[in-house]
Amino acid sequence: xxxxxxxxxxxxxxxxxxxxxxxxxxxxxxxxxxxxxxxxxxxxxxxxxxxxxxxxxxxxxxx
Length: 63
Description:
By secondary structure, the chain is an all-alpha fold.
């Protein structure tokens, strides 16, 4: 938006209604989605580990 406003001031026109796209936005969004997927995988693995630990405790109690 700063670039659009500066361009408007220098050229005597109005600022653009939509700020120019940041080329890094797509990469940032992809990274955020990757982090979210990894967090979900960590949660799933933590649940699986808790199940295995519970089964191990049950087996140890039988011995």
